[in-house]
Write a structure and sequence with these properties.
Layout (H helix, E strand, L loop, with lengths): L14 H12 L5 H5 L6 H17 L2 H24 L5 H15 L1 H4 L7 H16 L14 H14 L7 H17 L3 H21 L4 H25 L9 H10 L7
Helix pairs in contact: 1-4, 3-4, 8-10, 9-10
Length: 264
């Protein structure tokens, strides 16, 4: 027999069911940890879960991506529940806000505007955003909390929307060579830091010009390096070698052995 005092179990297959679970976690008789959280205390978890979702995307596992997207959604619902309790806004307000924005920024789908290509969509999107800003500086809307490469690319994309752009990829490569020369000639720590920053900034320009994401490219390169370095360490251990004692040519030889074969 069902206990009349016990609330029904939430529907785990619906959005409303998940929202009810979060509400009960935050209720006076809910979970002490969840009840203690604030917008500020949850900042790190929102960031961590987002990066874990990106890692799942890179890994190509649909099951892992599904799990991590759920963790990101939980963070969103927790923030919305906290805001609801203080009378700031609710999850319905969040949904209304993004839904309204999507309708407004897609007049080619929900209105009479005609576009034929993805490039035209981007131009129209930026034009609508410019109208919404009411003259606000383009860089001002780029979150400064972004990782440095992502912030640089977003900043540059806003500048491009305003017409500030390299004409050709070759122009960016020429600028990259110039910055590399200046970095090589830098003398003081401050000069080296400034020139290295300029070089990285131009590399981000090159990524953008090639249609690539600089942050993603570096993240994937770092993952490849980690895999190969782990393999290098394993080879050294198998051969009773100590990496720190090996000359550079021996290290290069081991490194070449770790290169993935075609088809791997």
């Amino acid at each position: 027999m069902t206990d009349p005092q016990k609330p029904p179990e939430p529907d785990v297959c619906s959005f409303d069911g998940l929202r009810e679970i979060v509400r009960r976690l935050r209720a006076p008789d809910g979970c002490p940890w969840d009840r203690a959280q604030t917008h500020e205390s949850l900042r790190r978890y929102l960031l961590e879960e987002t990066y874990e979702a990106l890692e799942a995307l890179d890994g190509g596992s649909p099951a892992k991506l599904r799990e991590e997207l759920g963790d990101v959604l939980l963070q969103i619902l927790l923030h919305a529940q906290i805001a609801s309790e203080s009378g700031e806004f609710t999850i319905d307000d969040v949904i209304e806000g993004i839904a309204t924005k999507l309708l407004r920024r897609h007049p080619h789908v929900f209105g009479e505007t005609k576009v034929d290509t993805a490039a035209e969509v981007v131009l129209k999107w930026e034009a609508i955003k410019s109208e919404e800003r009411g003259g606000e500086s383009l860089p001002a809307e780029v979150p400064q909390a972004l990782p440095a490469l992502a912030y640089s690319q977003a900043l540059q994309e806003r500048a491009v929307a305003a017409g500030f752009e390299w004409p050709r990829v070759e122009d960016v490569l020429d600028k990259l060579a110039e910055e590399a020369r200046e970095l090589a000639e830098a003398q003081t720590v401050d000069e080296k830091r400034e020139e290295l920053g300029d070089t990285l900034f131009v590399l981000v320009s090159l990524a953008r010009k090639l249609g690539l994401d600089a942050e993603e490219s570096l993240r994937l390169a770092s993952r490849r390096f980690r895999r190969r370095f782990d393999a290098l360490q394993s080879l050294a251990q198998e051969r009773n070698l100590r990496i720190a004692d090996l000359p550079i040519d021996a290290l290069e030889s081991l490194w070449r052995e770790t290169k993935p074969r075609s088809g791997d």
